[in-house]
Write a structure and sequence with these properties.
Blueprint lengths: L10 E8 L12 H12 L2 E4 L2 E11 L4 H13 L5 E5 L2 H14 L3 E4 L3 H5 L18 E4 L3 H12 L7 E5 L4 H6 L6 H7 L3 E3 L12 H9 L4 E5 L2 H13 L6 E5 L5 H5 L9 E4 L16 H12 L6 H18 L6 H9 L2 E4 L2 E4 L7 H4 L2 E2 L4 E7 L5 E7 L17
Parallel strand pairs: 1-3, 1-4, 4-5, 5-6, 6-14, 7-8, 7-9, 9-10
Antiparallel strand pairs: 2-3, 11-15, 12-13, 15-16
């Protein structure tokens, strides 16, 4: 194709907001690798309804700060003139970016945050589902709290415990959603026979978890769970070991998703458990390149010398959905046309099938949210000192193979 045919020299600009520095930086470890893969698969252009156009991906660091995330989103819209923003990694990043896009009328695709804090926390009246309204420009794919609750219980039910659970919930969007006494983990786990002992919210980047540890000891909690940023769990787990608290199970969201976070704990990371949203053994392929999950994971290790990490698949899938939507839009340079194309997504990706409006969710939610599979895994210390994430629970998604069964922390 001659350069002159590239739609009068126009370029599609995709902005990507990601926490590349700060306490959430582990989520962004694979960003550079994934973006290189996307450029390589597309050859620098996207085929649109009016012919091929150049592709430009503009990356902005949220610095793990919600205010900064909103600020760089606005810069991408106002200063860089992007047609679309994609964003990943916890409500602290996805929510302010999505809110800014909704205000400015710019399409946005987000992931790596449970749908509840992403959708409900952005409503005018979060406590009243009857008032919830769909969004016009912002779309999200990931799992929900109902999925992580079922996954955690599926792991715990494999062991003999006293069913007493210590809850670690920070004072942030994730912690407030997960620890909500009406719609969070406590009532759902109670329905399964578990009792959640919640000592209350703590501030992120705390340096003393003695109050929580004492509360869990008093409750004789065999299980600890929560949604914790990586540095905070390192502090908590180190102090718990020092203070003689050793539960049988620690299933922690967010903090121990990544090899780098578990490796920092040394031998104390053995048999910690977490949700698994993507792995090298997931049976899915990329709509951009045809690569399998295993191919993408091994490619990252070959390129970096590091173990694969879960966000690889979801960051890749962001660009799969973005590219597919741009290709299908009647006019990808028109925000409403591009938003309509995103809403009509029906795509098999490296993280599974993504289709908005087709899930078993309340209609207002389903219009903007597509759920993806979730299984449970445990970190196993290897002879060479490295860690392997072994899938141990897959009841909801048997198509994703297990590699072992749940083991108690010794």
């Amino acid at each position: 194709m001659a350069p002159a045919a590239l739609a009068q020299g126009e370029a599609i600009k995709i902005g990507y907001v990601t926490p590349q520095t700060g306490p959430l930086a582990a989520f962004a470890e694979a960003d550079d690798y994934v973006i290189q893969q996307v450029y390589g698969a597309l050859g620098g252009t996207i085929e649109t309804a009016d012919g091929p156009v150049s592709l430009e991906i503009i990356v902005r660091d949220s610095q793990s700060n919600p205010n900064r995330a909103a600020e760089v989103a606005r810069q991408l819209i106002v200063d860089d003139g992007v047609q679309l923003i994609v964003v990943a990694s916890t409500p602290e990043t996805t929510n302010p970016v999505s809110a800014q896009c909704e205000i400015e009328g710019i399409p946005c695709i987000s992931t790596v945050a449970p749908w509840q804090p992403w959708f409900i926390e952005r409503q005018a009246n979060p406590a009243d589902p009857a008032t919830w309204e769909s969004f016009d420009y912002t779309y999200h794919f990931f799992w929900g709290l109902e999925d992580v609750i079922a996954t955690y219980q599926g792991m715990w039910n494999q062991l003999d415990t006293n069913m007493q659970v210590g809850g670690l919930f920070p004072n942030d969007a994730d912690g407030n959603a997960w620890g909500n006494p009406d719609v969070g983990l406590p009532p759902a786990l109670a329905a399964g026979g578990y009792t959640v002992n919640d000592p209350g919210r703590y501030q992120n980047l705390s340096d003393d978890f003695t109050a929580q540890i004492d509360a869990f000891k008093a409750a004789n909690a065999d299980i600890v769970t929560g949604v914790v940023i990586p540095p905070d769990f390192t502090t908590f787990w180190t102090q718990a070991n020092q203070q003689g608290y050793r539960p049988k199970v620690a299933s922690i969201a967010k903090a121990i998703l990544f090899p780098i976070a578990v490796e920092a704990l040394g031998e104390a990371g053995h048999n910690l458990s977490t949700e698994v949203w993507w792995s090298a053994s997931h049976p899915f392929t990329s709509s951009l390149s045809g690569a399998s999950a295993g191919d993408l994971a091994s490619g990252f290790t070959e390129a970096t010398g590091r173990p694969w990490t879960q966000p690889i698949g979801f960051v890749h899938a962001l660009f799969e959905v973005a590219t597919d939507s741009i290709k299908r839009a009647e006019d990808p340079f028109d925000p409403d046309s591009l938003a309509d194309a995103i809403a009509a997504t029906n795509l098999d990706t490296i993280v599974g099938h993504i289709e908005f409006g087709a899930e078993g969710l309340p209609p207002a939610v389903a219009a903007n949210v597509s759920k993806t599979p979730l299984v449970g895994g445990q970190w196993r210390l290897q002879d060479d000192g490295s860690y392997d994430l072994v899938i141990v629970e897959n009841a909801a998604h048997p198509e994703i193979p297990t590699g072992g069964t749940m083991e108690a922390i010794e």
